[in-house]
Design brief:
Elements (H helix, E strand, L loop, with lengths): L2 E3 L2 E4 L2 E4 L10 H5 L2 E9 L2 E2 L2 H14 L6 H5 L2 H11 L6 E9 L12 E10 L11 E11 L13 H12 L4 E6 L4 E4 L3 E6 L2 E4 L10 H12 L4 E3 L6 H4 L2 E6 L3 E8 L2 E2 L3 H15 L1
Parallel strand pairs: 8-9, 8-15, 12-13
Antiparallel strand pairs: 1-7, 2-3, 2-7, 4-5, 4-6, 6-7, 9-10, 11-12, 11-14, 14-15, 15-16
Length: 285
Amino acid sequence: MTQIPAQILLLNGVERNSGEALFTSHNRSFRYGDGLFESMRLVNGKLSFAQRHLSRLMLGVQLLQMRLPDNFVTVSLEEWCRRLAERNNITGGARVRLTIFRNDGGYYHPEVNDASWVLEMWTLDHNEYEMNDKGMSVELYQDIRKPINKLSSLKTANAQLYVLAALYSKQMNVDDAILINHNGNVIEATGSNLFAVKNGVLYTSPLSEGCVAGVMRSVIMEIAKENRIAVYEVPLPLSIMLNSDEVFLTNAVRGIQWISTYKAKRYFNNTAMKFQELLNKRVTS
């Protein structure tokens, strides 16, 4: 997937050049990881699953006790994305990142709870979601286990665990790393939720196990139920990686990516391909 940065971004609704410095070293997201983000997708120049992204974002904003600028509330997220896409002449597919961070001031104890936001875009070479032709290879990352707490389901600016897992996958010469929680169960990959398939039934980790509350995860579960495909949210033991017929990853930008290999295990991708087709029908209808 080729991604080209757009020339213009928005800082609190104000246009800025994407190559321009926006912050100082006092930025709290830089200093403390005091922020949240959403990774999203435009299809035909329109934001997909806008309400789901906004709902997850606002839950995180509330938990972190931040106050967003009035213009973020008075203008919809979908409209902000439309305006920015128009300014960057984007009419097809694009990756979108919305970052929220608490404003400067204080050390661990913030001086204010007012927050700012940045909206960025990258044009994509495909408008619709595209299945990866070559399946992904993965390994388990077990050096650090993800804790289960109120922050586990959020996409926070503190992503050190995912960075280390991604570095591990590079060291192991595989495409991605699978994370486990402090119970020793499989929960997700570095930037995606995980689904396992056995005898046509889908299994995915429940949020109570510490995985991110993925927007695409919720969409896939909804599509499954609409098509009378059983899907269960259950803890996934390590053995799920060896006992499944298929394993695939989901996120809001890439859609569905199928895994082909884990150690000596080989997987099929029939279910993943079926869901990819159903997903594209949903976002283009």
